[in-house]
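User: Study the fold:
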Amino acid sequence: MDEETPPFDRLVNQAWPAPHRVDAEGWIYRHAGGVTKRANSVLPLGERRDLSRAVDEAEDFYAGLGLPCVFSVGAQAPPGLDPELARRGYRRADPTLVMTAPLAEQAGGVPQGTEVRDSPSEPWLRTWWGVDGGRHPEGGRVPAREWAERILGGVRAGYASAGAGAAVGRGVPQGDWLGIYCMAVDPGARRRGLGRSVLRALLAWGRDTGASSAYLVVTMTNAGARALYEGEGFGVAGGYHYRIAP
């Protein structure tokens, strides 16, 4: 990775913090009751002396939790890791783009009809979980949404909404950067520009917190979201994908 390229692997990890994590010689084992792959995967930051053994140890850790072993493979992963996981039969999943935009080029303040709060309201949570929560089946002693709320509350963030809570998003200030997360629009309220209003509200809020650039992550297959972000000045700056144990 170029020295001037921001460490997006680390920024994303910090902005979406798993409630439980273990540092294993620079690799981070993340656990959040199975809620989101990001918070329940290995973040392999840097080389390990014995790569095969390092993968074995990660597999043992997640087996002890009753969860599949998942790796997030980004720019800071060891070059030999992806081939090693492929050799073991790990499935490649969810190729994801990191997109960035300079906030200096974003004009205007918070759009009319939107608001940004310092904590998620119940309508905010209901909309986001209604769109995203179906991917996270219940299981274990802690309800899935409770795990999600623990992740959301792990760092300072702004919670934007529009259309009486029908569209929501989350902004995480990280120094010069603002991370955009949890963009969701209720299916019955789509194609009304509410997602764009939420995004612009978060960008305006981010400028007010001192950020000079914004980043977000979006799966390559989400053409609609990508078109929205490109229309607001975001361009591709990097990416990552997951590897899931067979």
Summary: The chain has a mean pLDDT of 93. Residues 8-95 form one domain.
